[in-house]
Amino acid sequence: MSTQPPLEHDELVRRISRDLADGYDEELEMEIEDHHPLPGVSSSAASGGEKDYRREYFRQLFRLQAELVKLQDWVVASGAKVLILFEGRDAAGKGGAIKRITQKLNPRVCRVVALPAPNDRERTQWYFQRYVPHLPAAGEIVLFDRSWYNRAGVEQVMGFCTPEEYEEFFRSVPEFERMLVRSGITLLKYWFSITDEEQYLRFLGRIHDPLKQWKLSAMDLESRRRWEDYTKAKEVMLARSHIPEARWWVVQAVDKKRARLNCIDHLLKQFHYAETPKPLIVLPQREHHEHYSRQAVPAEMLVPEVY
To answer: How many CB atoms neighbour CB 66 within 10 A?
Structure first.
């Protein structure tokens, strides 16, 4: 059994610091970099190639997010139905990619589904039943942060399903997804791929960052121990559910920023969208009424101005 190779302390601190900064919104990250250098990152590194790399990432991300807004408008105007599944190991970067996709979009058009573990009633239902109510209607984009492929991954590895249920899943999932596509849904499936070492570093970052410790569950820690079991399960899943109607796309995700850009770029290229013409918006003049005066808010209703 392989052991995790030790990392130099300075390199470990540097990489965890970068991961911490990566959790900020991009505008805040730029502001902090300009005026308050990141801990663990030398000023020479921050002002050199790494800073240039980050600025290019911001430039490309904002450009792609503008294209996502055009895609959103086209989806609404055309009545398209879009469903995107995000799968990958714990700490693979799925949530960060989803955040950047949805950041500038209308939550009434583009919504995220992240279902908890099934309850007692749901465990007795047809396996796909609890996912069906969340499927997109016309003019909607739905992003699943994990999906029905839980059965092929965590449920199989952790023994939460029987071998018979596991085999039935692989008999059913191709037909289920073909049915979705025949109904007019565009289905995209992304697997975010990271290395053993990268997951180790990201878990360390979560352990030492109070704002991210909530992301670490007992199941996450157990998944770390069972790395090889999850690898085998992933390989079987990709082999048995990669169909022409709903292909798997693997995103190389060791570099989070590149992974986001590559995923969004690929997503956009799956649609023949065009910019939707919009009517000219004219701000109307506000009406003024002679006998109206704004009433003062009672002091006891005001939130204290601490800042």
So the answer is: 10
What's the chain's average pLDDT?
Answer: 90
Bridge partner list, 142: 83, 111
> Tokens 């798997």 label which residue?
248
Q: Per-residue pLDDT tens for 130-160?
A: 999 999 999 999 999 999 999 999 999 999 9
Q: Please state whether beta strands 81-88 and 140-145 pair in parallel, antiparallel, or not at all (unpaired).
A: parallel
DSSP state letters, 42-110: -HHHHHTHHHHHHHHHHHHHHHHHHHHHHHHHHHHHHT-EEEEEEEESTTSSHHHHHHHHHTTS-TTTE
What domain count does the chain have?
1
Domain membership flag for residue 302: no
The sign one gets for the Cα dihedral 210, 212, 214, 217 is negative
Q: What distance in Å separates the CA atoms of residue 39 and residue 22, rounded to the nearest whole number? A: 13
The span from the CA of 54 to the CA of 57, in Å, is 5
pTM (2 decimals)? 0.85
- Are 143 and 68 in contact by the 8 Å Cβ rule? The answer is no
Stretch 173-180: mean pLDDT, rounded? 98
In a domain? residue 126: yes
- The predicted pLDDT at position 175 comes to 98
- Would residue 306 count as lying in a domain? no
Q: Strands across the sheet with 81-88, in order?
A: 110-113, 140-145, 81-88, 185-193, 248-252
Indicate the DSSP class of residue 151. Answer: T
Please give the residue range of the domain that contains residue 142. 9-276
